[in-house]
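Rotation project, supervised by the postdoc (A.L.). Task for the rotation student: set up a whole-complex structure prediction and record inputs and outputs verbatim in this book. Inputs entered:
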Amino acid sequence: KQEVTQIPAALSVPEGENLVLNCSFTDSAIYNLQWFRQDPGKGLTSLLLIQSSQREQTSGRLNASLDKSSGRSTLYIAASQPGDSATYLCAAPQAGSEKLVFGKGTKLTVNP
Amino acid sequence: DVKVTQSSRYLVKRTGEKVFLECVQDMDHENMFWYRQDPGLGLRLIYFSYDVKMKEKGDIPEGYSVSREKKERFSLILESASTNQTSMYLCASSLEQGLGNQPQHFGDGTRLSIL
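Outputs recorded:
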């Protein structure tokens, strides 16, 4: 059964810093991995979806990587801004299913 | 842009009531999902539907049922609400193009309180 872990649970950085959020998963037979952002009291916004055939996916200041062999994905945020403050969740599918298993998220605070 | 709309942002109901949460998507997506999100437990899948009138249990289906009579609408039903069903409920949808080729898109959530 797929399990997804995100460490750390919370991270506080000064504005302008580059940072990396980590996600690990137990079942490496995945076909994709998805990163989301969640603002307080709101739903999830899809940030990036990386297919298993890709190693990286980029959107603006965000770059996500996927290493299936080690069961890890990272979300890199360049030149962080206070508006990046949110909880970031990663999700990997259950084997052979459309069902996603979510990590518990990393709460990011970017201080001005 | 994909739009997933949940009928209520906040809802307060009483123990024992039958509660309906509605979700509508406007992008002709085949797949629709209901999750609940609780502090310390994260997001957990309640039910999943991959087509009209089709449904599949998620990890925590007990105390819930679902209805999908039309492709764009997926309803979550609490048959007899209990206080342990107080939670944030999130609906999502995705296009069916082979396993995992399309991202899931979420609504803004319904914060449900059962008194």
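Student's summary: The radius of gyration of chain A is 13 Å.
Supervisor addendum: The mean pLDDT of chain A is 93.
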